[in-house]
Specification:
- With 262 residues, the protein is mainly beta.
- The chain has one domain: Porin.
- Strands 4-5-6-3-11-14-13-12-9-8-7 form an 11-stranded antiparallel beta sheet. A two-stranded antiparallel ribbon has the order 1-2. The protein has a two-stranded antiparallel ribbon with strand order 10-15.
- Strand 5 and strand 6 form a beta hairpin.
- The chain is globular.
- The relative contact order is 0.18.
């Protein structure tokens, strides 16, 4: 088991085997890359601010090769902070990420205003089952870098799952609430792409982006996804996910899908 999803190498980060995704033998999972970008941007940001939106555009396939990160501050105000992170492989841009952060300011809420959405979810990770392994002889982000619990034994699909990040993005840095949420949210298209579980599919449906909005930082290690997807005959689709922790809903995530024949 590696010590992290990525390890520093020179002026970049080398992906470990715990970062691999389902769309190619040497391609990374977007959740692992999202955890890395979030970690690097939060490290460069002000610790008094809370991360409430993460976005990533995966402009190229994510190779299992060293990635170089360039983090920059876009704006820093009294309440708002925005950072960006470009990830490059051998000089080519592969992902462009953004993080919006807000400094908390306690204040009384007026009567009749919007309140939190709901209570605790109807299930828990302890009531679910370990996700099935597709290729036991190989290491993937799922199983090595992140744990997934499913409602039915041996069934991957169905649109619902609990996720727990098993490794930090880089050595020695504990995953933040946003890093955990972003890593889990990239599974929305996967768990909602099947009703019963992976079958011999004529289509691949990777996501070209990921956008996560949080109403509040999730508490604890586990993130719950309740996801649904729609596919279109013109070759694109959309996944919407509702995110929760043990106490209740924490936010939403969306993914633009690019459909292609396998």
């Amino acid at each position: 088991m590696p010590e992290a999803l990525f390890v520093p190498e020179g002026d970049g980060y080398l992906p470990t085997e715990a970062t691999l995704g389902p769309w190619g033998a040497d391609l990374l999972h977007g959740g692992a890359v999202s955890a890395l970008a979030t970690t690097l941007m939060e490290e460069a940001g002000d610790p008094e601010y809370t991360s409430l939106r993460f976005s990533a555009d995966f402009v190229r396939a994510l190779p299992q090769r060293p990635l170089r990160a360039a983090v920059r501050g876009v704006r820093k105000g009294r309440r708002l902070e925005v950072l960006e992170c470009d990830l490059e492989e051998d000089g080519r841009l592969v992902a462009r990420c953004s993080l919006l952060r807000v400094r908390p300011q306690p204040l009384p809420l007026p009567e009749g205003g919007p309140v939190e959405w709901d209570g605790p979810p109807p299930d828990s990770p302890e009531a679910f089952h370990a996700a099935p392994k597709f290729f036991p002889e190989r290491s993937f982000f799922l199983g090595s870098g992140i744990e997934m619990r499913v409602p039915r034994p041996g069934v991957f699909g169905g649109g619902v799952g609990w996720f727990r990040l098993l490794l930090p993005a880089v050595p020695g840095r504990d995953p933040s609430p946003m890093a955990r949420a972003a890593a889990a949210s990239d599974f929305g298209n996967g768990i909602s792409g099947f009703s019963e579980g992976p079958v011999e599919m004529p289509l691949a449906f990777p996501n070209a982006d990921l956008v996560v909005h949080l109403a509040r930082p999730p508490l604890g290690d586990w993130i719950r996804l309740d996801a649904s997807s729609e596919w279109r005959e013109d070759g694109y689709g959309l996944t919407r996910s509702l995110l929760a922790d043990r106490d209740g809903t924490v936010g939403t995530a969306e993914q633009s899908l690019v459909l292609s024949a396998t």
